[in-house]
Design goal:
CATH superfamily of the largest domain: Putative cyclase
CATH architecture of the largest domain: 3-Layer(bba) Sandwich
Order of helices and strands: HHEEHEEEHEHEHEHEHEEE
Number of domains: 2
Strand order of the largest sheet: 4-10-9-7-5-11-12
Number of strands: 12
CATH topology of the largest domain: Glucose Oxidase, domain 1
């Protein structure tokens, strides 16, 4: 009996060590030296801005515009002027976007822009239903497989919509009644991630963290009321693992702005 008990304890110890090693591998410690030396892998999750960049199809919204105002040949210097709505291309929605008395984009504290990252994949559901929204069951199923969403994480929702990025009409998927049809997040999933997992932000590869058909923008309200941000039109989510990476968000710092274009990076250990 003692031999059996000893063997059981050894098995438990091996499983515990393996689980701990797996967890350490999932979120391997990284330093700035790792990033600078190239020992860490960097993935740019940002689309370049140009006059074809998708933007919210609302009244008074305009496409990105770039105009040359000085040239090397004429002026000895190359310089350009840009104009664009805040919510265009890969961008951040600040907490004041949908809620009063919440931080503007320039008031988001720097530490909130660095976070562990995870990806929840709903591409199959979105393929079958363009109006699909990430459910609470989807989140708990992800956690059953990968462990709890880390405290203070940025959670990306991969819908597969990035494949339509260069086709604005298909990307916004607007019907004859002007309703948009693209996937997003449900209110219940957003509330769980904010209240139970203390996420810093939610990101997605569509025009909005809310599904396109939404008229009430419940997910935006959940995030912004809690002082959290959204990242929209995020690129290359299909190239990220489900977990085991860090996120760096570098938004344009517009005073009193409700958001703006952002450079978003994933940082992970080389495998």
């Amino acid at each position: 009996m003692d031999l059996i008990r000893l063997c059981m304890w050894k098995m438990i110890a091996v499983v515990t060590l393996a689980t701990s090693a797996s967890a350490q591998e999932s979120f391997a410690p990284l330093t700035f030296d790792d990033v600078i030396s190239g020992r860490a892998k960097l993935l740019d999750l940002t689309y370049p801005l140009n006059d074809h960049s998708p933007y919210w199809p609302g009244e008074n919204y305009q496409p990105f515009k770039l105009v040359t105002i000085a040239t090397l040949e004429k002026d000895g210097v190359l310089s350009k002027a840009v104009s664009f709505p805040e919510h265009l291309g890969t961008h951040i929605d600040a907490p004041n976007h949908f809620e009063a008395d919440r931080p503007s984009v320039d008031q988001i504290q720097p530490e909130q822009l660095f976070a562990p990252g995870v990806v929840i994949d709903i591409a199959m559901q979105a393929e079958a239903n363009a109006d699909f929204a990430l459910t609470l069951d989807d989140v708990t199923a992800w956690e059953a497989e990968h462990g709890a969403v880390p405290d203070g994480a940025v959670v990306f929702i991969h819908t597969g919509w990035g494949r339509f990025w260069t086709n604005y009409d298909r990307y916004k998927n607007q019907d004859a009644r002007a309703a948009l049809h693209f996937p997003g997040c449900s209110q219940a999933a957003a509330e769980y991630l904010v209240q139970e997992r203390n996420v810093r932000g939610l990101g997605i590869d569509t025009l909005s963290i809310d599904p396109g058909v939404s008229k009430t923008f419940d997910v935006h309200h959940v995030l912004n009321a809690a002082g959290r941000y959204a990242l929209e039109n995020v690129a290359k989510l299909d190239e990220l693992p489900a977990t085991g990476f860090y996120v760096v968000v570098a938004p344009i710092k517009i005073e009193d702005g409700s958001g703006g274009p952002a450079r978003v990076f994933a940082v992970m250990a080389e495998r």
